[in-house]
Amino acid sequence: MNKMEIVKAAFTVWGRKFFRTTSLTELAGELGVTKPALYRHFPSKKALLDAMYEYYLDTYGVYIKPYIEEVLTAGDIVQGLRILIRTMTGFNFRNRYLFIFSLVQRHGDGRACAITGEFRRWGIDIPRLEALEGKGGYPYRLHLALASQAFFVAAQFKKCGGGGGDMKFSEKKIEKLSSYVEEKILRGLGFNKEAVDVLDFDALESLLPRTLFDGEADDGLLKAVAGAVAEAGPWNASMEMVARRSGLSKSSLYSHFKNRQDMMAQLFLLELERMHRYARTSIERGRGPLEQFYLGLLAIADYLRSRPEILITMDWVKTRRIELDITPEQDTLAIFSDIPAIARLDKELVPNWVFYWTLFLIITTLVSPPGDAKKRRLKGPGTSDGVFRKVFRFIALGAEGL
Questions:
Q1: 193-401: which CATH number, 1.10.357.10, 1.10.540.10, 3.40.50.150, 3.40.50.300?
Q2: Tens-digit pLDDT profile for residues 1-41
Q3: How far apart are CA 102 and CA 19, in angstroms?
Q4: Is 156 exposed, middle or buried (0-12, 13-18, 19+ CB in 10 A)?
Q5: Tens of pLDDT, residues 318-370
């Protein structure tokens, strides 16, 4: 047994459970060795995870480097994105556990900036790729396309087999799935571009309700949970912090929550239900599927940027960094189900995938803005700096429609 064998086994063993647990005991059992045998190669679990991170970067860098110059000399951004998306999608379908690892590392642990810098040693210059956009402004099509690629690959894995196991696709299957992902990113939901171009976005934004929780009172205990999340982040918010904020003893909290995961799940479920009501109220004010879809999308964005502690929680949950004990009712997730054009599309992948894709891009846009965009991300309800008009156009029309 050598270091590389241990690293490769770790991707498989921990990847089956989406890296929710990283037990050296489980890894040792898979390899048929003792934990001390692992420590002879890696002095700590962190050292092993760092080696996995390096292996991912090296493997991905070697694979994608030959295509980068082809992307940069493609002549236009859409053709460049076509090459890039097809290349990345093929890699991810062929390397299931490396892909799951990248979701945690790039989207879950805030290492995207570090990865951007480290890719330069392979000649992968992300700023040069961003420059293909010209003066389009944030969010760049590149960012929306890369986030969408991750979403659609994950959704295809879920559709084709879901959770654990060592699922592998044939080359013919990979080609078919890659074509589907490319089609969705380049053409979006397939709405009519002329109809999108004549939308009066200013008028639509004025239709949004002025308040997020009209007539609703905050649950005092869950408000304390939200405050703890805002203070320490969802992975560090403790029962002790909630007890201090609520004025209750820690022991009395257990009459309301089974454990810390249950506490976070109840907060998540309440906020998702509120988001649902706010979005549906906004959707009802639109005429036709395009107006309704934009109002629903903007309502979700407004809700999250007005509730930064919930935005942090949602960003964590989207890459499965917390295992919730409560699964939301499907009706709560069916925010766009009354829009017939959306309801028809929802049948082709996984239930409510249009909502999931929209939510994924909204969260990614809000938590990862460059430079001065960070100052604008938490504007109040009904405001617009054009950011979510662009996200809407990307989802409705795809990269080609921009």
A1: 1.10.357.10
A2: 789 999 999 999 988 877 777 889 999 998 999 999 999 99
A3: 10
A4: buried
A5: 655 445 555 667 677 889 988 999 988 988 888 889 999 999 999 888 886 65
